Amino acid sequence: MMKKKEELILFLILIMMMLPVFLIISKTNIYFDLTDNREYSISEFTEDVLSEYEQPLYITWWKSEEFKSPQLEIISSLFAKLPVISTIRNPGDDEKDRLRELGFPEEQIEYERAGELTQALVFSGLEIRYLNKTVIVPFLVDPLSLEYQIVEALIRLEEGGKKTIAIFSDNSNYTIMISELTKNFNVLSVSNENPLKSIPDFLIVPDVMDFSNENLFAIDRSIQSGSPVIFLCDGLDINPQLSDYALPFESPSIIHQWLEGYGITVEESLISDRNSLSLAFVSENSQRFSNYDFWFKGSDRFDALWSSPISTRSIEGLEKKVLLKSSELSWLKETDVDLRPQFEEEADDFTGPYPIAVEVKGEFQPLFQYSEDSYKTDGTILVFGSSLSFSDVVQSSGSLGNLVYIRNEIYRLLGYDNLYNIALLSDRENKMDASGQIQPFVINLVMYPMLIISLYIILLSKRKKSRSV
Amino acid sequence: MTKIFVLYAKDLRQLFFSITGFLSVLLFPILLSSWMIFIVHISNSKQADLSSFFAMYSTMIILFIPVLTLKLWIEDNKYKTDELIKTLPFSEINIIVSRFSALLTIFSVIFAGTLLFPISFYSLGNFDMGKSFTNLFALYLSGAASIALCVFISTLVSGRIISWILSTGALLFLGSVSISGGFLSFLTFSGHMESFSRGLFSLRDVFYFAAVIIFSLLLSSKIILLRRWR
Fold first, then answer.
1. Can you give the CATH number for the domain in which A385 is found?
2. Angle at alpha carbon of residue A50, lines to A45 and A52, rounded to 5°
3. Of the partner residues B17, B33, B134, the one whose CB lies closest to the CB of residue A444
4. ipTM of the complex as predicted
5. What is the sign, positive or negative, of the torsion defined by CA atoms of B24, B30, B36, B42?
6. pLDDT digits (tens, 9 = 90+) for B48-89
7. How many domains does chain A have?
8. Which A residues in the span 110-169 are in contact with B, Cβ-Cβ below 8 Å?
9. Sign of torsion, CA A228 A188 A233 A396?
10. pLDDT cut 70: percent of chain A above it
């Protein structure tokens, strides 16, 4: 009896000893990232960027209590292992004013409190400090873009300021794009009344305006000096406020003629694609339906609305690469295209995919004559077969996915290739086509039962034999 | 060790050759696969994602494991082997470990059967293999922890039906209650499967499941010990 009692006491002591061990282990979170795309690991590029800082780098995630994001916390904890001082702080009332002054917005979220949905204004931004310099990431929602946003902010910190982007916009079609890009760049809004005076780091040119000679000269000069230029071109005249139909242009735009000289033609037709408004980006819970080649994290979807196909022909000295395609389930609509949604219209003979974004690299022939030779340098232009995909018409009703896309392209063309790679880190084509496939049926519902029944028959007969012996 | 093996072989035979054992081995993977094939084809899902398979798996564990555990005790009562064991020189831990191992073996056979479903689907899409591995690993761990917990409850409660109700209730609470953050989340199985479901192999969570198994088995053995005293 005594032995049993001792055993019981020993057992109780063992439990008492294990409790602190259990508590310590529960506090330390050691894990290994086994995802194919290393979604919860910091890339070597980021580690390289961070290792260049000789003095401590302070990263503070100002996060209101109500804002829950376990994933963001996991990734944030990874930064704590690097040579940075990383903290997560819930801003107190005295700190909120300072944060607002720094440019942190409070955003309204819905969260569950005691089983009920409640609304709250929350902070979720990063403050990055190095020596006497500070940069901020205003509001973090998407965990997969955390690393991207931190490195992007560090580049800003290093550059000592933002790069300058000029956008030709003589109307208010691009106010959402301008306000989004302002978070990362200095944005100059250019028009015929307010022409471009100097060469910017980057240029965005929608072909929806009549260009003055002064501005055409400025665009050409930017291309010749190596500043990347994005052209947003429509193949048909689309004005949804005025007409339900897309019609051919009365006279071809000067930009179209210009691009023809570089071997780029934006066709006079529109791509109809059943996937065009549900092209989901990578995100934690969303799904991806599309066959599009390029996906960028940071938002949840890309709306490829009213795009025209782009065809290319070879020009000496210029290299062309297709960046974005419509899905295979797309087909072409020719002139007088009805822009109203027609859900029943599902073509039987899909003719896609069609290129809708093309990159051209090389030495571009100048449109104007220049006296200085220094203008003759290699450049890059990017042509999208849609101006509306980036305009307020789409952005006000859709996601900001298109703007994330264009921002990533801007970074890439500005030479931050590695940053672009971070953006692609969690990108994967997770498509599946199970339609018409019979092997799951055969394996799971025919082969498996047969296997188990045979196994039991064999084992039972053996058992019977051994018993009879 | 030989003692454990003798008891283990007896328990395994009892369970494996029973109707309940046979139906569990046969039906668990078939029901799971049928459900998933139905979901994939009805929803016409074009996404290579097995999250609904893993979610359904947890539910199936809650349904099947208490039944299997209950069956083992019923068999013991039926053939009076429990009385026989009490008179033989087996320690309490021998009895509990062998019982747990027998149930875990049956669960492993079922688990191996269910692996056919992901295997049959992997050729059809681009699945995240790492994430699938951690998910399956978590399901195996939670299955093992569920068995240990059911063994503990069945030693604690003498009434078989009450034991089954309590086991199912406990697994339902630990496995399906989703609480974000807080102490309850720390206690539940679902809270410790979250990292695995994201594709992270978390040592903290492995330790949690290991601790649940060890504590449940140790406590079960001590309960048997206390019973023998009476």
1. 3.40.50
2. 105
3. B33
4. 0.81
5. negative
6. 677 778 888 888 888 889 998 888 877 777 666 666 666 667
7. 2
8. 112
9. positive
10. 74
